[in-house]
Amino acid sequence: MSPRWLLLAVMAVGLVATACTERLTTPGSCPTFCPGGQAAYRDTVLTPILNGDSSVSGYVESSSLTSVLVSNGGQYDQHRAVIRFLSLGDSVTVLDTARTFTVDSATIEFGVQDRDTTVSNFVLEFYRLPSSLDSTATFATVDALMTPAALLGEMPLGPSLRSGVFHLTLTGAQLALIDFQPADSTVLQIGVRVRADQPTAARIGTPASGT
Question: What is the DSSP letter of 174?
Fold first, then answer.
């Protein structure tokens, strides 16, 4: 190869190398490597669709709860439980015949699934609440209805009792506390509140999960 052709080849390689060299020093060479235009910011409210988000799981209907929390402050915050029973009929069927009955006692059976055993004088209070109370009621409304006149009974739990099935039985004059009024439509609704020397909590539910 002649010196002239060698010089041209070297120059060609030099031009190719120059064409492939990026500018790595700052600032960058815009708009070659930078997007054009101005950034646009928008404040958008996304309206949820009921039962339309499959990414949310683990929530159940209130009627499917197996336990509820009751507490009186502190790290547990304030929680009251409201339990609504199914409508009670005024008769029972015996040998294909509807027969009326007289109530001589009533027992409320409930399960304590877990509770804080570090506090003393732990008591669960049960109150008769109006059947008209629904999920739109506020905490203040429910708490105001838990008066001495509406108290069905109390269940003290000793420090060694962390869980188990317990019964609150009403007899005699106590039955007047759960008498149905015409407005009740034979529906019994009770509220549960916890009382103790210090802030505490318990999780209560049915003795058989899911019933």
Answer: G
